[in-house]
TrEMBL record:
PROSITE patterns for this protein: AA_TRANSFER_CLASS_4
UniProt EC number: 2.6.1.42
An individual GO BP term: branched-chain amino acid biosynthetic process
Cofactor(s), by name: pyridoxal 5'-phosphate
Modified residues (N6-(pyridoxal phosphate)lysine): 196
Transferase among keywords: yes
Top EC group: transferase
Protein name: Branched-chain-amino-acid aminotransferase
Catalyzed reaction equations: L-valine + 2-oxoglutarate = 3-methyl-2-oxobutanoate + L-glutamate; L-isoleucine + 2-oxoglutarate = (S)-3-methyl-2-oxopentanoate + L-glutamate; L-leucine + 2-oxoglutarate = 4-methyl-2-oxopentanoate + L-glutamate
Family: Belongs to the class-IV pyridoxal-phosphate-dependent aminotransferase family.
Record organism: Cerina litoralis
Entry superkingdom: Bacteria
């Protein structure tokens, strides 16, 4: 296997468990491939990345990640085209973002060639787990955890950078209705909402559980100071179509700079759709609902791809969105997946050969 990481260590499994996997019935994120990547940080530097059989970790119970949540992650997907070639979608963006998250969580940045060489080696080893055909993907989860023992509340001096992979179909099954946040917040100015930090997700679980009890699948967060402006949903950035215009809120230190989000903006602008990136008031959504100009809402994300939002709840009222022909959501989903599965020309250079 070609790789430019001189000492990349590869220890292969003795026999694959792939035969035991029912690829037609895969709950998101439950099944993992045969191998994983692990790279340890100690004494001020990252050691040699290793590809080893997928296995549990042994960590000291006082490891910092358990106590202070010093952990960040990424989400990427690999796809297989009809000729059997595997691809990633814009992994350079994920690499850039995980290091941005690392910096904010006081974690040492990870070297670029370690990331790409070990990623390629891992995916080539487990390439059989990437199934061809629309909707089949391999969800790739790079993450970093603070492993140094000791409960002092200070940055760890030891870390593990790991990559695990899970064959996946869609993240949401069926219709998605969202609750617009009135009281809880996901992130605040000066915080780390822009980072893919583990704690940003844990903090959403309780409000999302309450929203689920009311029949919603996700929360669309609002700004923490006034709750008047929509921000992002739990696992997705949010787009709104009013008339023929596409709106999304700007990224900030509260909002994740989504790779799918920026791809949708580029696709939309390229086909002449007016895209406004500006704060969006909840009141504007309500007005657009009343005067029938609110045509669509959808979420974008690696796991979710493009997910239409059928309705939303706000202050006890529920609003349904119209069913539109040739929706922007279905159009962008097709254009994105055509690029991802190598069915269309990639004029943006977003596909990355594995
Ligand atoms: C992703 O889209 O990769 C995400 O991070 C969502 C994840 C929390 C399932």
């Amino acid at each position: 296997m070609d790789t430019s990481v001189k000492n990349l260590i590869v220890e292969k499994i003795k026999s694959s468990k792939i035969g035991q996997v029912d690829f037609d019935n895969l709950p998101f994120g439950d099944v993992f491939t045969d191998h994983m990547m692990v790279c340890d940080y100690k004494n001020g530097s990252w050691g040699t990345p290793k590809i080893i059989p997928y296995q549990p970790l042994t960590l000291d119970p006082s490891a910092r990640v358990f106590h202070y949540g010093q952990a960040v992650f990424e989400g990427m997907k690999a796809y297989k085209d009809d000729k059997g070639q595997a691809w990633l979608f814009r992994p350079d963006e994920n690499f850039r973002r995980i290091n941005k998250s690392c910096v904010r969580l006081a974690i040492p940045e990870f070297p670029e060639e370690y990331f790409f060489d070990s990623l390629k080696t891992l995916l080539r080893l487990d390439v059989e787990w990437i199934k061809p055909g629309e909707g089949n993907t391999l969800y790739v989860r790079p993450f970093v955890i603070a492993t140094q023992p000791g409960v002092i509340a200070a940055p760890s001096e030891e870390y593990k950078f790991m990559i695990i992979c899970s064959p996946a179909k869609s993240y949401y099954g069926g219709e998605v209705r969202v609750k617009i946040a009135e009281k809880f917040s996901r992130a605040a100015d000066g915080g780390f909402g822009f980072a893919k930090a583990a704690g940003n997700y844990a903090g959403q679980f309780y409000p999302t559980k309450l929203a689920k009890e009311e029949g919603f699948q996700q929360i669309v967060w609002t700004d923490s100071s006034t709750h008047e402006y929509i921000e992002e949903a739990g696992t997705m950035n949010v787009f709104v179509r009013i008339g023929d215009k596409l709106l999304t809120c700007p990224t900030s230190d509260r909002i994740l700079d989504g790779v799918t989000r920026k791809s949708v903006i580029a696709l939309a602008r390229d086909q002449g759709i007016e895209v406004e990136i500006r704060p969006i008031k909840v009141a504007e959504l309500l007005d657009a609902t009343k005067n029938n100009t609110l045509k669509e809402m959808f979420g974008s994300g690696t796991a979710a791809v493009i997910n239409p939002i059928q309705g939303f709840g706000y202050k006890g009222d529920k609003y349904e969105l119209p069913k539109v022909e040739n929706s922007y959501a279905s159009r962008f989903k097709k254009q994105l997946t055509d690029i991802q599965y190598n069915r269309s020309e990639d004029k943006y250079g977003w596909r990355y050969k594995i």
